[in-house]
Structure formats: structure tokens, C-alpha cells
Specification:
single chain; 10 helices; 3 domains; about 25% helix; Phosphorylase Kinase, domain 1; alpha+beta; Transferase(Phosphotransferase), domain 1; about 450 residues
């Protein structure tokens, strides 16, 4: 392969990588003293209009998304021979595939990397896009530089990404063997966010498996809860996996924290005894507090103080942060999980509970009704939507029943908090036989502030 001396205004420094459909070069702009990655469509595909359009669509998609967790595109150009190219941000730390070749990543660091990958994929899922080709080669690292708030991990290669609806039914086989979900081999199967969850699980296994003959086992030091999470993520049936990357990330946060939480169960038990004594201040994980008077209800508050929820008797709270939703400073937006056991409510079908999240950014981008429309439960029967004004918030409420897996009933609700508090989203799994009354009572006990 001959190395070009220039592409557009950029001087070519060296080859960065070669793929099935494109070649990537490191370019340098002397005027700006800046390096870029230039992705050029391969010669053997230059006359295939379908591949060419997919190549250009990747550039358009990354340009529209323009997110710090995704590789950014600066411009699109065309070589003299007619081949298109994309000028992109250069991730100077190489790929996860390259890092794994040098040896195992320490468990703690590997878990942080997996969590960042999941949050990057959650950006796509939040916009109704499926990546369809999650591999270590598509996970890149960039150096943290002064003034940059972005994460170290960025996601690349959206050449196979599609809107959820377009990714399903009679689509060509797409993906990388070993990371591709089983349903991606079937042109008639539904390919949605759960297919990416499978890819996340496979990348997690790459990060955490031990070397040697027993490749199915994770390394020492990996929490049992993380092993269980990877097993769920790589389940053969999509219905048995986490529904999207945000739920995977939230479950991973819980799994990572679980060993420390087990050590502190005496503290939480003592707090329950304090409830019976009439005075309660609970700090389950440093992210949530709960308080009550002698006979009053128990109110859980997240660590920012922006969300509070009146909890049913016997329930507990955990401050999680809203996976996939971050403010301008890069911090997770506030969120709470409440349940009889917050650690189990997502994984145990019979466990009731609720997730409450607050996002000012979502309020700027969408409406409560539209947000709920963008988060359906395909495996459930949808009941007619209803509205209710409770505690000063106008709630949009949608119920899902007869789900093939997981909770028997899931209630999605969203509304706008007072002033500029933001969009408040509540997902509820009500106790059996108490859906309508329980949901209204719980929503009436939600308070949010700016």
C-alpha cells in the first residue's frame, strides 16, 4: 500500500490502521499544529454505491451526534479518484484491542473502562441508534489534556450503526464474529439495543477473563456480581439481557459496589432498627439519605438534595446517579433507586421498586411524552397512556404489562419539575395487584428542585 503524501490540507504522517472497508491515516495540519485521523474508503469498495453511502452516513451521524464519548468528525472530503474520506478526531491512545495485546488490564481499571464503554454506547441508545459492531478495535483511548473534560474512552466506527427500526428485519448480516449477538446472524430477527448489550458483555469478558486454558472463567478479584452481570449480558435470548446500555451501566455500578455494600450490611440493619425507634438517618452508600419523624413517612433524598421521594414502609434507597445522563461538567445527573432491596429490584422479577432520575439537559431537548415514546418495552403489551397532576407535576404515564421477561408490570412516567428543575423520569415496578393506586401515591411523593 502506497502512503499518500497529502490528503486535502493535511500532511500524511503514517498509517494508523487498515479495515475491511477503509484505511485510516494520521494527518497533520501545520497551520493549526494539530493531528487528525483521516479515514479513506478502500479502493475495492469505491464503486459500490451501497458501501459508499454507508461510509458517508457514518460521517453524517457522528457530525450530528457531536458527543465527547464518540469520535468527532471535523469534515468530509473526496480524493482525486473520487473516494470519500472523513477527517476525524485522533484518539492518540490507540485501541482497546492494542492494549489487550500487551497483557491483562488490572481488574479495577478494566471495570472502569467497561463502564465508560457502556456510557458511550448509552449515548447512541438514548438517541435510538444501535451500533451493531462493538469490538475492542472500535474502543479508542485519548489522552487527558489540560482543559478537556471528556472521558478517556471514546467509541468509534459507526459504519454499521442504524436507527433501531431500520436495524431490524431483512437487513444484511452485520457485525464481527465473537462479538456479534446471535440474532444478528438471522436476517429476520429483531436487532435492537440488546444486541449491543451482548457486545458489551463480550468486551467485558475480554477485559476480565483469565489467561490460559480456562478462558470461560474470570480473573481473581472480579466480584461475583460482575460475573453474573456478564452472564446476563451475553445471554443467547435478547429477552434475557439488559434492555440497553444505560441499564447495563447501572447494573455494573451496582455490581462493582456490591462487595463493599455487603461489608456494611450491619450498618444498614442498625439503621432499620433506628426507624423502629422513631429517628432515622440512613447513609446506605454515601449517595442517599432517608429521614422520618416518630410516626411520619420515610423520605429518601439523593446526595445532591435535588430529588426526594416518600418511600413505602420497609423500602430502602440507593443513590445511583443516572447512567448515560451527565451535566455540562461531566457529572452524572441525580437519581435514586428505591425498593425493599435496591440491589435486587432490577434483576429479581418479583421485586417491586422504582427508579427516579432528574435531567435539566433532557428538558431542553425533549418533552415528557416524547421521552416516553422513545423508550418503549417491545416485549410487553402497552396500555393506553394517561396523565395525572400530582404534587404540582403534570405526569405522562404509560403502563406495560404481560412482559415476556422481567417484571410483570412496568410503569414509565415523566414530567417537568418546577421552575428549571428539569425533566423528572420515574420507572416503577409496582407490587402485585396495586398498580394504579400505588403509582399515583408514589408519584405524589416525588419532589424535585433546581
Amino acid at each position: 500500500m502506497n502512503s499518500p503524501s497529502r490528503i486535502g490540507q493535511y500532511r500524511i504522517e503514517r498509517l494508523l490502521g487498515v479495515g475491511s472497508f477503509a484505511t485510516v491515516w494520521l494527518g497533520y495540519d501545520p497551520a493549526l499544529d494539530a493531528y487528525v485521523a483521516i479515514k479513506v474508503l478502500a479502493e475495492n469498495w469505491s464503486h459500490d454505491l451501497r458501501v459508499r453511502e454507508r461510509f458517508l452516513e457514518e460521517g453524517r451521524l457522528l457530525w450530528r451526534l457531536d458527543h465527547e464519548r464518540l469520535v468527532r468528525v471535523h469534515t468530509v472530503g473526496e480524493l482525486e479518484d473520487g473516494r470519500p474520506y472523513l477527517v476525524m478526531e485522533w484518539a492518540d491512545g490507540g485501541s482497546l484491542r492494542d492494549r489487550l495485546k500487551t497483557g491483562p488490564i488490572p481488574v479495577g481499571q478494566a471495570l472502569r473502562v467497561l463502564h465508560q464503554i457502556a456510557l458511550a454506547v448509552a449515548v447512541l441508545h438514548d438517541r435510538g441508534i444501535v451500533h451493531r459492531d462493538l469490538t475492542p478495535g472500535n474502543v479508542l483511548f485519548r489522552s487527558r489534556t489540560a482543559g478537556r473534560r471528556g472521558p478517556e474512552v471514546v467509541l468509534a466506527d459507526l459504519g454499521l450503526a442504524k436507527a433501531t427500526a431500520a436495524a431490524s428485519g431483512l437487513t444484511a448480516r452485520a457485525g464481527t464474529p465473537g462479538y456479534m449477538a446471535p440474532e444478528q446472524d438471522d436476517p429476520f430477527a429483531v436487532v435492537d439495543a440488546r444486541s449491543d448489550v451482548y457486545g458489551l458483555g463480550r468486551i467485558g469478558l475480554d477485559l476480565l477473563r483469565q489467561a490460559g486454558p480456562e478462558l470461560a472463567r474470570v480473573r481473581a478479584g472480579v466480584p461475583r456480581e460482575v460475573s453474573n452481570l456478564l452472564r446476563t449480558a451475553t445471554a443467547r435470548r435478547p429477552a434475557d439481557r439488559y434492555p440497553d446500555a444505560a441499564r447495563f451501566a447501572a447494573a455494573l455500578e451496582t455490581a462493582i459496589a456490591a462487595p463493599n455494600d455487603r461489608k456494611g450490611w450491619w450498618t444498614r440493619t442498625a439503621a432499620v432498627v433506628a426507624i423502629l425507634a422513631g429517628v432515622l438517618v440512613v447513609r446506605g452508600d454515601g449517595n442517599a439519605t432517608a429521614s422520618s419523624g416518630a410516626r411520619g413517612p420515610i423520605v429518601a433524598t439523593d446526595r445532591t438534595g435535588r430529588i426526594s421521594v416518600t418511600m413505602p414502609s420497609g423500602w430502602h434507597a440507593r443513590g445511583t446517579g443516572w447512567a448515560g445522563q451527565r451535566d455540562a461538567a461531566g457529572n452524572l445527573q441525580p437519581a435514586l433507586v428505591i425498593a425493599p432491596d435496591p440491589e435486587l429490584w432490577r434483576t429479581e422479577p418479583a421485586m417491586p421498586g422504582a427508579f427516579v432520575g432528574l435531567s435539566s439537559d433532557l428538558a431542553d431537548r425533549t418533552t415528557p411524552a416524547r421521552y416516553l415514546d422513545e423508550h418503549p418495552h417491545a416485549e410487553c403489551t402497552t396500555a393506553p397512556a394517561r396523565t395525572a397532576r400530582l404534587a404540582g407535576i403534570d405526569w405522562e404515564i404509560v403502563s406495560f404489562r404481560s412482559c415476556r421477561a422481567g417484571k410483570a408490570v412496568i410503569v414509565e412516567s415523566a414530567g417537568l419539575g418546577p421552575g428549571k428543575a428539569g425533566l423528572v423520569y420515574v420507572q416503577i415496578a409496582p407490587p402485585a395487584g396495586s398498580e394504579s393506586t400505588f403509582v399515583n401515591t408514589l408519584l405524589a411523593g416525588v419532589r424535585v428542585r433546581s
